[in-house]
């Protein structure tokens, strides 16, 4: 499912134009991104929680040159589904 698909579903259920629905969807995702950058956590009740976590540094191998590469820690986004969402998914 893409943002456009979400916007079309929103437009269909609310009577909004596709253009207005897409604006709302874009604002929604921008708000989530902004909050993750600012606080590192977004909780959507009944759906789940998005958290920013720092991964550990890793050692990889360049198979072409046969040398080790040290990868620095990186920020990643972890999604933890809510209990209600998991129950519905596994029903």
From TrEMBL:
Alphabetized Pfam families for the sequence: Bac_DNA_binding
Protein family membership: Belongs to the bacterial histone-like protein family.
Protein's organism: Candidatus Coatesbacteria bacterium 4484_99
The protein's name: Integration host factor subunit beta
InterPro entries linked to this entry: Hist_DNA-bd, IHF-like_DNA-bd_dom_sf
A GO molecular function held by the record: structural constituent of chromatin
Cellular component annotations (GO), alphabetically ordered: cytosol
Secretion signal span: none
């Amino acid at each position: 499912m893409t943002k456009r698909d979400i916007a079309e579903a929103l437009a269909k259920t609310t009577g909004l134009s596709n253009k207005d629905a897409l604006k709302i969807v874009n604002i929604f995702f921008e708000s989530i991104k902004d909050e993750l950058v600012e606080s590192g956590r977004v909780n959507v009740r009944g759906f789940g929680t998005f958290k920013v976590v720092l991964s550990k540094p890793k050692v990889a191998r360049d198979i072409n040159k046969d040398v080790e590469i040290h990868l620095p820690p990186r920020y990643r986004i972890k999604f933890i589904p809510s209990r209600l969402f998991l129950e519905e998914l596994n029903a």
